[in-house]
Design goal:
Length: 272
């Protein structure tokens, strides 16, 4: 039996219409195996991620940016914990983007993001990102339409600039159902070790679910580009989500065709 998950269908083609209602968040049909096969697959993939990340660092030619977006409880933290658990922490930089500070709000929306873009040899993970500026800011009218509307183009230009300088970008929208969200919120209430994660703010945000879906659809449609593609990952089942994401990351790193730098023997003199 093939242990490969087919990921192509999750990629948003540039310019394609996105209807999130048509994507089943509980779908696992692109994997021909059980949950335990899937978990085994994830374990195997994350073992391959570590040497690839070391090669990325050693070669010092490329960098990688992984953008994670999701509704509250969507699994961004879980994905980071699981998929990157085997990778040398020195090579990976995680940045969370919360409510902008007064200083950040005083600048253009990309200002706080740019300095967290990865250096050569580095992998950067964005837990939320510049996309919040066309999601929460749009849904809550924190800025008027004349301000958020041009941001899609500005995001595309920014991401293109990063890729032209050697960054490979991949963006994941972790798609959960509204029902799954309430289950996860309930879990946080029921489990004392998860109380810290519970926020009444998330409960209030739930009321804006449909507006968020619309904002996500527009963002996915307008900013899935050949240089920075979006994937809509069915994420009700965390094992499936991790399988899809680790498969895409391993393939993406392998496609960089990286090599360890060669030693210039002519310049070597150990002084013995
Ligand atoms: P968490 O991911 O649970 O740490 O929450 C971070 C919060 O920051 C979320 O409620 C986001 O909606 C919010 N946030 C992130 N970026 C922005 C932004 N640009 N404007 C307003 N709120 C934001
Ligand atoms: Mg939260």
């Amino acid at each position: 039996m093939s242990r490969e998950v087919k990921t192509k269908g999750f990629r948003v083609s540039p310019g394609a219409k996105v209807r999130l209602d048509d994507v089943d968040p509980a779908d696992t049909s692109q994997f021909d195996g059980s949950k335990s096969d899937g978990l085994e697959g994830v374990r195997a993939l994350i073992k391959r991620l570590d040497p690839l990340q070391e090669l990325l660092y050693a070669e010092h030619k490329h960098s990688v940016l992984v953008v994670l977006q999701a509704m509250d409880t969507g699994g961004k933290d879980g994905t980071i914990r699981r998929v990157f658990e085997g990778v040398n922490p020195q090579g990976v930089k995680v940045t969370r983007f919360g409510v902008p500070t007064p200083e950040e709000s005083g600048h253009d929306f990309l200002w706080r993001v740019h300095s967290h873009a990865p250096e050569k040899g580095e992998m950067a993970i964005f837990n939320r990102s510049h996309y919040e500026s066309v999601l929460v800011e749009r849904v809550h009218g924190l800025v008027p339409k004349e301000v958020w509307r041009p941001r899609y183009g500005e995001i595309n230009d920014f991401e293109r600039e990063l890729t032209e300088e050697g960054t490979t970008i991949v963006k994941f929208y972790l798609h959960i159902s509204k029902k799954e969200q309430v289950k996860r919120l309930q879990d946080r209430l029921d489990d004392p070790t998860k109380h810290w994660k519970f926020s009444m703010f998330d409960v209030r945000e739930r009321k804006f679910w449909d507006q968020y879906m619309k904002a996500y659809e527009d963002a996915l449609e307008r900013t899935s580009t050949p240089w920075a593609p979006w994937y809509v990952v069915p994420s009700n089942h965390p094992w499936f989500r991790d399988l899809v994401i680790s498969t895409i990351l391993v393939k993406m790193l392998e496609d960089l065709k990286m090599h360890y730098p060669k030693l210039d023997k002519a310049k070597m003199d150990l002084g013995q």
